[in-house]
Design a protein that fits this description.
The protein is mostly beta strands. It has one helix and 47 strands. It has a domain of 65 residues. A hairpin with a 5-residue loop joins strand 20 and strand 21.
């Protein structure tokens, strides 16, 4: 059979991929704006294999100003909520093409959805799984909840009650915007023995929901902290109830950190499949993030210890009595492969971290976020990262070996080369929020984040991937103005060399390379497409193919090696003479 070599780079150009520049540029920025005082939040953004973008968030509405807009045009009407200066949070999944043109919207017009909670994951059919946390709109507990799909069809959640309380919702949405199924998961509202005060008779909020991931078979995984028993339906009509151990002294106050780590597995239809919890006692254990990559699940959270050890399967965890970050790896049966708890220490009497991210990039795990803390490698206390003060939170990035969790490198935002004083001070409230890298150029990574400063805003910073030494020629302020814009979420589309990200603010945003600004009505979200610096487009140099059009579909990795069972990632797909680059 005749063989030939195909240049995928040339094929990429023929598909219309734009030439990249030496610095990033914002190709477009469009507002998603609920026209309320503080009700707009971007929760997640994902890109499918065709380059379409899913923007998920909660956008505010009131009775006097109920409409949510996108790029200045009407999107939908949210809940008609009337209660002073607050607003209702509406479920919003907006799908656009790569140019930012709206394809469809799935939304709610009843129910109050918690902001910055849950997330999305693209499924093998090009659809989407969305995890969210919802209670009734205030004053509307006598009404059912409703979601509306791309065609305007209503999905009703039959739910009325006397008191508002939170439930977890998992929703499957097709690539065309059809709601295929919707599952509700219930956490007990029954008070425990230490219930007191306003929580003596009823517990309205007894869980925290993190992100969602799907594996190669579209099984679903949810990151959860739960403080009261949870009941999950099974495919055969039965159910399973999971009971937390570390809630014995909880009063019911949702602001109190307590409860257990739960990594919950559902099947592709949203029914209970498996779960991972810890054995032993602690003050609190959280599961905040979960991702799927390279055939494994990686979860991130934290533990505040009570002097004892915990067990993740046969892995021993020894947290301090200060907030101690946790990262673990498990297989899809939720059997732990490795688990690391990084002992925490206070900095100037403070400890804590938030807005954390976990990403699998070039065979490594990148743990990022905001913190006031010092935490170290449990196997070598000389390897650590520490904030430099106990007041304003700072950004951090830690690189871990995905194979065993070993500590490879770390940086703190106030200690790295980008930090400077003066009028363009980079030392305000800072977060390192996301890491992206070209898998073909493993020596460089870009860290995305923000400084709460209108002059710095949302930034992209380039680092040596092995040492995390900063490249001072590789700092770019992507979105500035906005009052003081905060970075929220990002997604890297390697085959097209672009990144999609969101920023939040309450004044006019300025975008790098763009001539026009964008001003929200109140607090709004700016959705942007960023053309990345040169070298961020993924591609293979050579792949051996056949000219026989009758051959079945085959996949190759970016090194030109055939892959029999490809997982999530970037691949070259060949079917006879037809070759294309795809993201699975």
């Amino acid at each position: 059979m005749k063989k030939q070599l195909l240049s995928i780079f040339a094929a990429s150009l023929s598909l219309g991929l734009a030439a990249q520049t030496s610095s990033p540029l914002v190709e477009w920025g469009k507002l998603i704006d609920g026209s309320t005082t503080a009700g707009d939040q971007s929760t997640d953004v994902s890109v499918d294999r065709n380059g379409n973008v899913y923007w998920f968030g909660t956008y505010g509405s009131t009775e006097s100003d109920p409409d949510v807009n996108y790029d200045g045009e009407y999107l939908y009407t949210g809940a008609l909520y009337n209660a002073g200066n607050s607003q209702n949070g509406n479920f919003t999944l907006l799908k656009t093409d790569a140019d930012g043109n709206k394809l469809w919207t799935v939304y709610s017009n009843s129910g109050d959805f918690a902001s910055n909670v849950g997330g999305t994951a693209v499924t093998s059919d090009g659809g989407m799984v969305v995890a969210s946390k919802v209670r009734h709109t205030d004053g509307m507990t006598d009404r059912n909840l409703s979601l509306f799909d791309a065609a305007g069809n209503e999905t009703v959640v039959e739910w009325t009650c006397e008191r508002r309380y939170y439930r977890m919702m998992v929703t499957k949405i097709s690539a065309d915007g059809e709601i295929e199924w919707n599952r509700m998961v219930d956490f007990s509202t029954e008070p425990g023995p230490k219930a007191s005060g306003n929580y003596a008779e009823f517990w309205a909020e007894s869980f925290n929901l993190g992100t969602v991931a799907v594996d190669d078979n579209d099984n679903i995984y949810l990151a959860i902290n739960y403080k009261n028993p949870v009941t999950i339906g099974k495919a055969d009509g039965s159910s399973v109830t999971l009971v937390p151990e570390n809630n014995k002294s909880w009063t019911g106050d949702p602001q109190t950190a307590c409860g257990d780590f739960l990594l919950l597995g559902l099947d592709s239809e949203g029914y209970y499949r498996n779960s991972l919890t810890f054995e032993g006692s602690a003050s609190v254990a959280y599961c905040q993030k979960v991702i799927y990559a390279n055939g494994k699940l990686y979860a991130q959270g934290y533990i505040t210890g009570d002097g004892s050890e915990l067990k993740a399967g046969d892995k021993t965890l020894a947290p301090t009595e200060v907030m101690s970050p946790l990262v673990l790896c498990a297989d899809t049966n939720l059997v732990p492969v490795w688990a690391k708890c990084f002992p925490g220490e206070k900095v100037q009497t403070k400890n804590g971290f938030q807005n954390c991210g976990l990403e699998f990039v070039n065979g490594a795990l990148w743990f990022v976020g905001q913190y006031n803390l010092k935490f170290s490698d449990p196997d070598n206390p000389e390897l650590y990262v520490s904030s430099s003060q106990g007041t304003l939170r700072e950004g951090f990035v830690v690189k871990l070996d995905a194979a065993d969790g070993s500590w490879l490198a770390a940086r703190n935002s106030r200690d790295d080369e980008f930090c400077q004083g003066g009028a363009f001070a980079k030392t305000g409230l800072t977060g390192y929020m996301s890491v992206i890298a070209n898998p073909e150029k493993a020596d460089v990574v870009y860290v995305l984040g923000y400084v709460m400063n209108a002059n710095v805003g949302v930034f992209m910073r380039r680092y040596d991937a092995n040492t995390l030494v900063a490249d001072l020629d590789g700092e770019y302020n992507i979105v500035t103005g906005g009052g003081a814009p905060s970075f929220q979420v990002a997604a890297y589309d390697g085959p097209r060399g672009v990144c999609y990200l969101t920023a939040r603010g309450n004044k006019a945003f300025t975008m790098l390379g763009a001539e026009e600004s964008a001003a929200p009505a109140g607090w709004g979200v700016l959705a942007t497409k960023v053309k990345l610096p040169a070298g961020m487009t993924t591609g293979a140099s050579e792949v051996e193919i056949s000219s026989d059009a009758a051959l079945p579909e085959k996949y190759y990795n970016l090194q030109g090696i055939e892959v029999s069972n490809p997982g999530h990632g970037v691949y070259i797909r060949r079917q006879g003479d037809k070759v294309s680059k795809v993201v699975l």
